[in-house]
Design goal:
alpha/beta, N-(1-d-carboxylethyl)-l-norvaline Dehydrogenase, domain 2, 15 helices, 8 strands, 11% strand, binds nicotinamide-adenine-dinucleotide, binds SN-glycerol-3-phosphate, G3P_DH_NAD-dep_C, Glycerol-3-phosphate dehydrogenase [NAD(P)+]
Length: 336
């Protein structure tokens, strides 16, 4: 198959390598000429994935129409907050009557409109329909998949046949794809877990114990469930790879950018200080605002997300918000 990947960050490049391993022809689009120059000459992205050499057959361009020539599958892996603009350009491409499957591996919720990524794509690409937009999500760090570490993830689409097509295209002997028709739950889990991972990082930064981190992950999961249920997700998704699986990896992994942001803040940096030395995207930062807004819109309480919001955007001290969390009214565990 001819595959076009929109986005040359660590995850786009890694998924391109998976598809190349599976025998597909991969072309990349990036907004950055500097990235085209770097990747075309060095075939690696040392700042993001040191030591990983990408195939010579990969092509890179800033011309999206050129990258999309003959595309049978399009994989979008750009930061969530630029998804709308990237899709506006993508929409100008003429697929000549044959609508390709569009796979979205971005995790996040758009600030301002509070839309999930499949909603942003569908709104901005009029010739696409929901049967052709598949979400790829689950516990995956590019640092590991690029080294072909065993991994399992979810392909979610309301149309089961499209999810199965993506399952077949991406699966191989080191990456195993499960299908789901719960795209809402899959997208919400993959987005909100990043906010909980910032909280986990804060706990690392202040030197909290394992008990505290286990409590955070479990109660973070309860928040994701509560929001997901209110927005129409299937509750079984929360216990699966896109739910608990991804929450665990992002809260605990040394590779997690969201955990890293939290850890720096826990050690005393401000958000703008952390952002000034981050080389990669930490989606939990914008998603914290959108998750809070989404929850407010359906009258769902997300105490941990709200606490992270206070620390990130209102300069509250971690110790203060943790005390507030601990001192809330006592209640039964299963109340969500
Ligand atoms: N890295 C991972 O391990 C991983 C795993 C699963 C999901 N994801 C998700 O994939 C998405 C992309 O993350 P990543 O790790 O590949 O990115 P990254 O942090 O490695 O790099 C970001 C990339 O965004 C692109 N970019 C920046 N500004 C842009 C703009 N204005 N227009 C278009 N492109 C722009 C650049 O090409 C840059 O390389 C995120 O939503 C992330 O949560 C990442
Ligand atoms: O490195 P993070 O924290 O952005 O997480 C990346 C992936 O979402 C983990 O599945």
């Amino acid at each position: 198959m001819n595959v076009t990947v929109l986005g040359t960050g660590g995850w786009g490049l890694t998924l391109g390598q998976v598809l190349n391993d599976n025998g597909h022809k991969v072309s990349f689009w990036t907004f950055s000429q500097a990235e085209v120059n770097l990747l075309s000459t060095e075939h690696q992205y040392k700042d993001k994935l040191p030591g990983v050499i990408f195939p010579d057959s990969f092509t890179y361009t800033t011309d999206m129409n050129k990258a999309l020539e003959g595309a049978e599958l399009v994989l979008i892996v750009v930061p969530s907050q630029v998804m709308g603009n990237v899709c506006k350009t993508f929409a100008k491409w003429n697929p000549q009557g044959k609508i390709p499957t569009v796979v979205c591996a971005t995790k996040g919720i758009l600030e301002g409109t509070d839309q999930r990524m499949s909603e942003v794509i569908l709104e901005n690409v009029p010739w696409l329909d929901s049967d052709h937009v598949v979400t790829l999500s689950g516990p995956t760090h590019a640092e590991e998949v690029s080294r072909r570490v065993y991994t399992a993830i979810i392909a979610a689409c309301p149309n089961e046949e499209s999810a199965k097509q993506v399952q077949k295209i991406f699966s191989n002997d080191y990456i195993r794809i499960y299908t789901s028709t719960d795209q809402i739950g899959t997208e919400l889990c993959g987005s909100v877990k990043n906010v909980i991972a910032i909280a986990s990082g804060i706990l690392y930064g202040i030197g909290a114990g394992d008990n505290t981190r286990a409590a955070l992950i479990t109660r973070g999961q309860a928040e994701i469930c509560r929001l997901g249920r209110a927005l129409g997700a299937n509750p079984s998704t929360f216990a699966g790879l896109a739910g608990m699986g991804d929450l665990i990896v992002t809260c605990l992994s040394q590779h997690s950018r969201n955990r890293y942001v939290g850890e720096c803040i826990g050690k005393g940096e401000t958000l703008s200080q952390v952002m000034s030395h981050m080389k990669m995207i930490a989606e939990g930062v914008p998603t914290c605002k959108s998750a809070k807004a989404l929850a407010d819109s359906v009258h769902v309480e997300l105490p941990i997300v709200n606490a992270v919001y206070e620390v990130l955007f209102n300069d509250k001290k971690p110790a203060e918000v943790i005390q507030e969390l601990m001192n809330r009214d006592l209640k039964p565990e299963a109340e969500y």
